[in-house]
């Protein structure tokens, strides 16, 4: 990957000798700690570019996003947007680029600190969210006279239900990592900040051991549940399920089970 100004990228491979076939994990670290990784337009360009590059690399199975410093991301860049007029915001369709954040491989958000406003929204765009015990989640936009603008009013209600979403969005108050786990916003609070990345990579390696087509298809089907009614969703799932029987990986996965050996995936 190229050198980015606002993020750091690296790749990790499983060192587990029993799982040599696991695909690697692409790591993206938001790296603007001085502004608590505020999500400027330029940072977004780096983020989407790196995520797309990892998405194309065959030896990468998943992506982890985390933040450098004391924040995951403290939201949109306030100085950058503070002087915008309605016409500028409207005419440029401000923040519409975030709707393009569509990546086929699983993304794990490893939330290391503040995930506020656009930062909380970014975490919710990811597929799995884990957090360190000190992490804080919130939609504080009302404190600034605005509302969430990258999915907060839509994704939070799906994650935690109406009453909790309303409370966060209307009061702007932060919740702790522990509360976020209780509410179903995140899947796990890890033991300490120090082990956060390790835990995220472990999830990545576990994903990287599975059939890669099935993984991407499973993500697509789960995401479809938010767009479709139950009947359509069940049909979409079943048809994709059928389609997997056309892959050699399905024959390999079931064959390996029957032979009591580890499958060797071909991504085909
Ligand atoms: N944008 C730009 N700079 C920021 C931001 C931000 N969102 N948040 C913090 N910073 C800067 C501070 O200005 C400060 O800079 P400096 O050192 O130059 O004064 C530096 O980061 C450190 O921050 P603090 O000194 O404030 O650190 P504290 O530990 O005292 O407080 C807080 C941490 C509580 C996180 C506090 O910084 C804060 O409240 N930040 C603003 C959080 C916020 O309101 N976020 C929502 C922004 S609006 C938004 O996200 C709209 C979403 C629309 C779509 C977004 C798509 C990306």
Helix and strand arrangement:
Blueprint: E1 7-12, E2 24-30, H1 41-56, E3 60-67, E4 71-73, H2 78-82, H3 86-91, E5 107-111, E6 114-116, H4 118-125, E7 128-131, E8 136-138, H5 152-160, H6 162-171, E9 175-176, H7 177-183, E10 188-189, H8 196-208, H9 212-224, H10 230-244, H11 248-259
Parallel strand pairs: 2-3, 3-5, 4-6, 5-7, 6-8, 7-10
Antiparallel strand pairs: 1-2, 8-9
Helix pairs in contact: 4-5, 5-6, 9-10
The structure holds octanoyl-coenzyme A.
Q: Overview of this structure, please?
A:
Pfam families: ECH_1. Its EC number is 4.2.1.17. One of its GO terms (molecular function) is enoyl-CoA hydratase activity. The protein is an alpha/beta fold. 43% of the residues lie in helices and 16% in strands. It has a six-stranded mixed β-sheet with strand order 1-2-3-5-7-10, sandwiched between helices. A four-stranded mixed β-sheet has the order 4-6-8-9. Helix 1 (41-56) links the parallel strand 2 and strand 3. The chain starts with 6 loop residues before the first strand and ends in a 9-residue tail after the last helix. The mean pLDDT is 97.
């Amino acid at each position: 990957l190229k050198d980015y100004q606002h993020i750091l990228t690296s790749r990790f491979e499983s060192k587990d000798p029993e799982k040599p076939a696991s695909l690697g994990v692409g790591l993206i670290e938001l790296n603007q700690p001085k502004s608590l990784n505020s999500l400027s337009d330029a940072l977004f360009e780096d983020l989407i570019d790196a995520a797309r590059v990892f998405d194309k690399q065959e030896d990468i199975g998943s992506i982890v996003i985390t933040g450098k410093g004391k924040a995951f991301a403290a939201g949109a860049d306030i100085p950058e947007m503070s002087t915008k007029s309605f016409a500028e915001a409207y005419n440029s369709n401000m923040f519409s680029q975030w709707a393009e954040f569509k990546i086929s491989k699983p993304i794990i958000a490893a939330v290391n600190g503040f995930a506020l406003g656009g930062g909380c929204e970014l975490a919710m765009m990811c597929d799995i969210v884990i957090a360190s015990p000190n992490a804080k989640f919130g939609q504080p936009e009302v404190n600034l006279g605005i509302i969430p603008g990258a999915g907060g009013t839509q994704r939070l209600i799906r994650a935690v239900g109406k009453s909790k979403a309303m409370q966060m969005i209307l009061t702007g108050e932060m919740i702790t990592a522990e509360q976020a786990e209780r509410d179903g916003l995140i899947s796990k609070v890890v033991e300490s900040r120090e082990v956060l990345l390790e835990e995220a990579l472990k999830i990545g390696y576990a994903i990287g051991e599975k059939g890669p087509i099935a993984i991407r298809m499973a993500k697509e089907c789960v995401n479809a549940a938010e767009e479709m009614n139950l009947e359509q969703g069940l049909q979409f799932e079943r048809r994709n399920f059928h389609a997997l029987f056309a892959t050699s990986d399905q024959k390999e996965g079931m064959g390996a089970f029957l032979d009591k050996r580890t499958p060797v995936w071909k991504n085909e």
